[in-house]
Specification:
InterPro entries: Endo/exonu/phosph_ase_sf. The protein is an alpha+beta fold. It has helices spanning about 10-20, 85-90, 105-115; strands spanning about 20-25, 30, 40, 45-50, 55-60, 75-80. About 25% of the residues lie in helices and about 15% in strands.
Amino acid sequence: MKSSNKPARSIWMEEFLNSKKLAFKPTPLTFIHPNGNESSTIDYIFVHSNLADKVNNTIRLDMLPNNTSDRYPLLTEIEIEMDSGKEKDKNCTSNKIKWDKIDLLQYQECLTKSLQENIIDFENDPNCNN
């Protein structure tokens, strides 16, 4: 017997969201059963927990005449501030890579390693609005 009234899927989802510091706000029913009835929510908008208060509105687009899917698309408004970067660009210098003079295999290996090790730290990254 289960010790919790929550379905296993819900428990797994909560554990996953917490481990990745993700959040979501409830969304309306998005799945249309073949009998035509709206039956469940199977689509979600996940954001990092630092951005959760920036999600203003999520609506389902149920009035689209050309939607032939068994799911309603979602539209979400997220309030963010973006820096144009123009001030930063003035101080940056561009180093053009001389592709014909580099070891492409070494470059690929270094790039792959860097991308695999690079984890965005939303809490401490100065480019993320906390």
